[in-house]
Write a structure and sequence with these properties.
- The protein is of the alpha+beta class.
- α3 crosses α5.
- The N and C termini lie far apart (46 Å).
Length: 184
């Protein structure tokens, strides 16, 4: 399964008459832009505009490159849990066969960089999100992520992430935050 095929499983919440750009194209543009190191929607959109001819070999882009405002609106409507699930299934299928026994997998939480995108777009920011990731060291790839619930932290997300991944035979590392036990 390709990432494009995986993204086809994400429900498009837009009104039909408002679907000028293909959802999979928008998600792929964002994914490729982030992989290239761009940190704002404007930078991603600028990269896509400069690379439009090359991108058209791989994406439909029937109406060209969407505006940064369109990209932000589409991203805001996507169900984050559904995106997490699709990404984890894709990562498991793509990278799972390459993960060796005794692979070191680091589980750690980070503050989302999305807040900076909102600041640069000069729109009202959403609250910053904490994301817990599983990083496979030998592959150099993140193969699972879970966003924590609002007013929570990574302690509640770690079990959820572990339940989503098949980590049998792997070495799991975690920082002190994940080593707390429930009060008795």
């Amino acid at each position: 399964m390709t990432l494009q095929e995986a993204f086809e499983n994400i429900k498009d919440e837009r009104i039909d008459r408002c679907k000028k750009h293909n959802l999979v194209d928008i998600l792929m543009l964002v994914f490729m832009g982030v992989l290239c190191g761009y940190k704002s929607i404007e930078q991603i959109q600028f990269y896509a505009t400069l690379s439009e001819q090359t991108l058209k070999k791989y994406l439909k882009l029937e109406n060209g490159i969407p505006s940064s405002d369109t990209i932000l609106r589409v991203l805001a409507r996507i169900d984050a849990k559904q995106l997490e699930k699709v990404f984890i299934e894709y990562a498991r299928e793509t990278f799972g066969k390459h993960i060796a026994e005794n692979e070191v997998v680091a589980i750690d939480g980070k503050l989302s960089g999305a807040l900076n995108m909102y600041r640069q777009a000069k729109i009202k920011p959403h609250k910053a999100a904490h994301v817990v990731s599983a990083w496979a060291h030998s592959l150099g790839v993140c193969f699972g992520q879970v966003k924590t619930e609002e007013k929570s932290n990574e302690i509640t997300a770690i079990p959820e992430l572990l339940d989503l991944l098949d980590l049998k035979g792997m070495i799991i590392t975690i920082d002190a935050m994940g080593c707390q036990k429930k009060n008795r």
